[in-house]
């Protein structure tokens, strides 16, 4: 079934394959994204403080969070900000896979040693691609995080939320809040796709197309490793991009180190790993479905390119045959 011959897919093809897989995977598990975001922005409250909305409650875990969100906001609350999130997922993954393909192809074409790049090189290439992707897509992530943490009575659309960020904080630069943390977090996709590529080369050497379950397994394993390594930074980034907690009198955090210090002071070091359960589950499922879909899309592109080349060759052959037939008819006339 698998296409074993090595064929080159252009960067835009890999980008479309990666973005399609990411959108499908994130749409399937979107409620987990809401839950992990709410868990990561919450701060423990004093016993005297009364909770009035979902965002003011202190969730005891993922299941408790789901129950509270449904109770306060209905089933639709689990899909708050979904359009913006999927738009961000599509743009981020399109940019990431495009630049990853470009920098990896450029590196391989210019080096003298044959064989796949080392693990360190794979991580470096992934980090470079991730940094380029973040520069263009972080405003969507900021707006989406705000939408996911808005109280029930203050739900706004993407454009209105973006205007609120611009007007209430640092102007247009507010849309790039958490940029430093995001650039640091490029190690997450770098570890993910670097580990995926390395595992693929080791476990399935020479294979171009993987079976769906093989791609799912490698994607889940690589994302789990990346999430465990970068969870404190993920929590800090979400804290930077969300509304500041009431205890700070509405003052936004200025850096991800400040967020981490605030969490440690109020909740202890383990607070940096809050939401790790749904984060791991979401990452495992999303990356598994993403890589499974991406592998299928890449195979589809290969078959499509083969079909286009075949049709083009047949067309050229017909033109050549037609020209040859005309030449045969014209030749006797010219001789006379």
From TrEMBL:
Annotated SUPFAM superfamilies: Mitochondrial carrier (SSF103506)
Membrane topology: Multi-pass membrane protein
Gene Ontology molecular function, alphabetical: ADP transmembrane transporter activity
Subcellular location per the Swiss-Prot or TrEMBL entry: Mitochondrion inner membrane
Organism whose genome encodes this protein: Aureobasidium subglaciale (strain EXF-2481) (Aureobasidium pullulans var. subglaciale)
Keywords, alphabetical: Membrane, Mitochondrion, Mitochondrion inner membrane, Repeat, Transmembrane, Transmembrane helix, Transport
Superkingdom, taxonomy of origin: Eukaryota
Membrane as UniProt keyword: yes
The keyword Nucleotide-binding is assigned to this record: no
Residues passing through the membrane, by range: 12-35, 78-100, 120-143
Protein name in UniProt: Mitochondrial carrier
CC annotations in GO: mitochondrial inner membrane
Family to which the UniProt record says this protein belongs: Belongs to the mitochondrial carrier (TC 2.A.29) family.
InterPro entries for this protein: MCP, MCP_dom_sf, MCP_transmembrane, Mito/Peroxisomal_Carrier
UniProt repeat feature Solcar, residue ranges: 12-106, 117-202, 210-300
């Amino acid at each position: 079934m698998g296409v074993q011959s090595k064929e080159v897919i252009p960067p835009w093809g890999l980008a479309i394959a990666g973005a399609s897989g990411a959108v499908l995977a994130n749409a399937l598990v979107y409620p987990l994204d809401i839950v992990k975001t709410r868990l990561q922005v919450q701060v423990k409250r004093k016993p005297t403080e009364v909770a009035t909305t979902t965002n003011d409650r202190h969730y005891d875990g993922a299941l408790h969070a789901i129950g509270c969100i449904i109770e306060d906001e209905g089933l639709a609350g689990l899909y708050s900000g979904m359009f913006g999130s999927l738009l961000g997922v599509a743009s981020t993954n399109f940019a990431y896979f495009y630049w990853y393909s470009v920098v990896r192809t450029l590196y391989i074409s210019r080096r003298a040693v044959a064989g796949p790049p080392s693990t360190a090189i794979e991580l470096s290439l992934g980090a470079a691609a991730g940094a380029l992707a973040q520069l263009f897509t972080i405003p969507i992530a900021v707006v989406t995080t705000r939408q996911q943490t808005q109280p029930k009575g203050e739900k706004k659309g993407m454009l209105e939320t973006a205007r609120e960020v611009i007007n209430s904080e640092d102007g247009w630069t507010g849309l790039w809040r958490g940029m430093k943390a995001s650039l640091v977090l490029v190690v997450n996709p770098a570890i993910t796709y670097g580990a995926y590529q390395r595992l693929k080369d080791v476990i399935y050497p020479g294979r171009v197309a993987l079976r769906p379950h093989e791609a799912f397994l490698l994607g889940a394993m690589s994302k789990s490793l990346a999430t465990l390594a970068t969870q404190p930074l993920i929590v800090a980034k979400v804290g930077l991009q969300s509304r500041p907690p009431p205890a700070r009198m509405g003052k936004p955090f200025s850096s991800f180190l400040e967020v981490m210090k605030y969490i440690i002071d109020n909740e202890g070091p383990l607070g940096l790993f809050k939401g790790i359960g749904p984060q791991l589950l979401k990452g495992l499922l999303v990356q598994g479905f993403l890589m499974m879909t991406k592998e299928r899309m890449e195979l589809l592109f290969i078959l499509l390119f083969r079909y286009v080349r075949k049709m083009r060759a047949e067309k050229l052959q017909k033109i050549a045959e037609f020209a040859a037939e005309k030449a045969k008819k014209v030749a006797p006339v010219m001789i006379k």
